[in-house]
């Protein structure tokens, strides 16, 4: 059996996020869906898996159902498949942030960098004036990254602020292009950098996963696998599972 996997997020004001937890869990459980969804005042984030019918029904409920009252009108979605169920249970967690940066002034609903489509990404990062920045954690970068990308060598995303403060300069680094798995960390990171005075900040729309789906391998600037936070471990071009990367994680 093949399972449909949906990675999703949206930054949107959810002042009632605590009241959404139980009904959202019930909606997923009723459809046999497993995975993790995070709810915070700033929005929703997570990855879930189930049958194609179950996932499609959930997405329709999120976008059009009464629970969110039409607030998830700009939901970032990325679909892939799994040969086995990649999650053990369904969890809906309440968080302070749907992706933890730890800077209250950073608000992606107010200001973010310039989105760049997967089809335009190669031409951007080939510009010698552009600094290419991987915003993911060190073990993710080790599994795969874009040619020429800077590894900030962070253990967790909240350390990104310190990296920017110590290693980057708005007066020197005029054009910064960044990427992450599905796009959510770049929303926060680009918003933060704009707040620190960086003028031109670009980020890959839909993240690495969108790039691996849209860009032919013959034209790709990506090397290795893209780590995903479930039992598949890593995906490659065409969003195909890379079982060879599971041994790399086991060696850690």
TrEMBL record:
A GO molecular function held by the record? oxidoreductase activity, acting on paired donors, with incorporation or reduction of molecular oxygen
Q: Which GO terms describe its biological process?
A: tRNA modification
InterPro entries (UniProt xref): Rhodanese-like_dom (IPR001763), Rhodanese-like_dom_sf (IPR036873), TrhO (IPR020936), TRHO_N (IPR040503)
Q: Where is the signal peptide?
A: none
- Which EC number(s) does UniProt give? 1.14.-.-
- Keywords from the UniProt entry: Oxidoreductase, tRNA processing
Lineage, top-rank taxon, reads: Bacteria
Q: Which reaction does it catalyse?
A: uridine(34) in tRNA + AH2 + O2 = 5-hydroxyuridine(34) in tRNA + A + H2O
Q: SMART domains under this entry?
A: RHOD
Domain (Rhodanese) spans 126-220
Similarity annotation: Belongs to the TrhO family.
Q: What PANTHER family is this protein classified in?
A: RHODANESE-LIKE DOMAIN-CONTAINING PROTEIN 7-RELATED, THIOSULFATE SULFURTRANSFERASE/RHODANESE-LIKE DOMAIN-CONTAINING PROTEIN 2
User: Sorted alphabetically, which HAMAP family does this protein's record hold?
Assistant: TrhO (MF_00469)
Functionally, this protein is described as follows: Catalyzes oxygen-dependent 5-hydroxyuridine (ho5U) modification at position 34 in tRNAs.
Q: What is this protein called?
A: tRNA uridine(34) hydroxylase
Gene name as annotated: trhO
């Amino acid at each position: 059996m093949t399972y449909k996997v949906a990675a999703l997020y949206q930054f949107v004001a959810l002042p009632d996020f605590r009241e959404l937890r139980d009904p959202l869990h019930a909606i997923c459980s009723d459809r046999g869906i497993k995975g993790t969804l995070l709810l915070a005042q700033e929005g929703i984030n997570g990855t879930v898996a189930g049958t194609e019918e179950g996932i499609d029904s959930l997405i329709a409920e999120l976008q059009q159902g009464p629970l969110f009252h039409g607030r998830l009108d700009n939901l970032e979605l990325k679909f892939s498949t799994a040969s086995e169920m990649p999650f053990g249970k369904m969890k809906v967690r309440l968080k302070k942030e749907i992706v933890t940066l730890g800077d209250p002034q950073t608000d992606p609903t107010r200001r973010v960098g310039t989105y760049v489509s997967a089809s335009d990404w190669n031409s951007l990062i080939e510009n010698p004036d552009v600094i290419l920045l991987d915003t993911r954690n060190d073990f993710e970068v080790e599994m795969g990254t874009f040619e020429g990308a800077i590894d900030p060598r962070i253990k967790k995303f909240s350390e990104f602020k310190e990296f920017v403060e110590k290693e980057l300069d708005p007066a020197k680094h005029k054009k910064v292009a960044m990427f992450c798995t599905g796009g959510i960390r770049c929303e926060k990171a680009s918003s933060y950098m704009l707040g620190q005075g960086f003028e031109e900040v670009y980020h890959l729309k839909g993240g690495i996963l969108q790039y691996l789906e849209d860009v032919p391998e013959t034209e790709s600037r990506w090397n290795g696998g893209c780590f995903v936070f479930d039992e598949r471990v890593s995906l490659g071009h065409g969003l195909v599972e890379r079982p060879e990367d599971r041994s790399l994680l086991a060696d850690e």
